[in-house]
Amino acid sequence: MTATPADEPIRVSAVVLRDGAGRVLTVRKRGTARFMLVGGKHEPGESPERTAVREAAEEVGAVLDEARLTRVGRFTAAAANEEGRLVESVVFTHPPVPLGAPPESEIEEQRWLDARERPWPDDLAPLLREHVLPALGTDAG
Predict the structure, then answer these.
(1) What is the pLDDT of residue 77?
(2) Tens digits of per-residue pLDDT, 32-76?
(3) What residues contact 84, with CB distance under 8 A and at least 6 apart?
(4) Shortest CA distance to 74 belongs to which of 125, 24, 115, 131?
(5) What is the bridge-based pairing of β-strands 10-16 and 107-113?
(6) What is d(CA 66, CA 43) in angstroms, rounded to the nearest whole number?
(7) Which H/E stretch holds residue 54?
(8) Which end of the chain is more exposed for a tag (fewer CB within 10 A), N or C?
(9) Residue 136 near residue 47, CB atoms below 8 Å
(10) Does 5 score more than 70 pLDDT?
């Protein structure tokens, strides 16, 4: 993975994973305080779709089918874990799949969010709170 200059946004892919009740899976990475969607930075030459599939397997042991990803949009917000940086994310949804046990996960905690319940927790990443959940609209839950 190559580092990006501080004045460029951090480019990532993320995926909205839901359980049978429609709740959205959020994760908190080790040493951080904010919950976000499953996802991460692109590897060189990797498409946003491929990044979403790879990150879901690495972080939560979910096996996604690239062909079943649906693009929600591309959003920019303050980075949750890198002070003073912006993150630009291509966000997808995917039909529910079982979660597995990822071998070397950077995830410290998983939490299911019923996006229909307000107020949302204060510890959500800006991208999720300000862009993704509103973009999902009535489909958020």
Answers:
(1) 97
(2) 999 999 999 999 999 999 999 999 999 999 999 999 999 999 999
(3) 6
(4) 131
(5) unpaired
(6) 16
(7) helix 48-60
(8) N
(9) no
(10) no
As a whole number of angstroms, the distance between CA 105 and CA 117 comes to 29
Label residue 102 by pLDDT band (50, 70, 90): low
Rounded CA-CA distance 16/140 in Å is: 10
- Is residue 37 within 8 Å of residue 12, measured between CB atoms? no
Q: Shortest CA distance to 40 belongs to which of 70, 81, 69?
A: 81
The helix/strand/coil state of 128 is: helix
Residue 132, CA distances (Å) to 7, 12, 73 in order? 23, 14, 8
Tokens describing residue 106: 């950077």
